[in-house]
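User: I'm preparing a small set of examples for a lab meeting where we compare how different chains pack in three dimensions. I only have the primary sequence for this one, and I'd like the structure in token form so I can line it up with the others. Please keep the answer compact; I'll paste it straight into my notes.
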Amino acid sequence: MPIHSSTFKPPRLLRSPHLQTIVPALLRKQRPPPMNRSWIELPDGDALEIALTPRLHARLAIISHGLEGSMSSSYVIGMVRALRHEGWDVLTWNMRGCGGTPNRLPTWYHSGKSEDLGAILEHALSFNHDEIALVGFSVGGNITLKYLGENGACVPDRVRKAVAISVPMDLRGSAEQLALPRNRIYMEYLLKPLRARIKQKAMRYPELFSIKGLSSITTFKEFDERFTAPFHGFSSVDHYWDDSSSLKYLTGITIPTLAITALDDPFLSATCIPHGIAETLPMFQLETSDYGGHVGFLNSYSLASTWAEARTVSFMRGSEESLVY
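Assistant: Understood. Below is the structure token output for the 325-residue chain.
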């Protein structure tokens, strides 16, 4: 599809990509609506926690959070509220080991673990909604796009649309971008909980994990090379990044899919914004804005809602313009 320039225009004092990224992460407080929590058992013996709004509508949206986020992340709750307002039931889920509860196995989630989203979707089909949509943020967006692309025409018929926001479609490029000195604050913010996860694993599985030198890891390349890749069956960090990046799967997407990306996103390299590929794909729409940061898109000082939430709602409606509500 042709690449679209978004209608997003931030307030003048919130144009900085760093303010767009940091302000909602630290200051946006969202009260979650009532949701029923339960667990889904997985074939490998692990389990995933889900939360589902009360059944009121014929449509269901499944929201996937970002790296070291959870169903309680403010951007997830904000999207839940926006979609509920629009007449959707909503399911959120915690990736393995996220949300404060350790998972059962030595392995955990990673940026390409699309089979877990597949398990969530398979479970959701039993609710018998007429229509299902997928929404993913950052790594959750990468997993969403990868799932859609690798499954292609085999994606269940009731899955009709998808939205992916601030997606590191090229994991290598994103890792290299975050390793730049100017992005050190973000790199450390993301690595801190990952180091804590390894310490927790080492306490439970001392025969498998060593924390020697853990504190000296300062980049995703070092972390993924030592932990993510080998513990999840990849031969190297390059194998992990190449196999898990949604960029290589975009050509397989068969349902209308919108990717929203800010050109000033400090987490993303130019290779994460696939202008050339997007123009050739009939079902994939890339929408870029000059501003927005990473999972930001604040269009007012109130922090009550974001432009990305309104744009997601309008895409679900079939409208090309974002709506303010």
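A couple of notes for your slides: The chain has two domains: 4-170+245-317, 172-244. The two ends are 28 Å apart (CA to CA).

User: Perfect, thanks.
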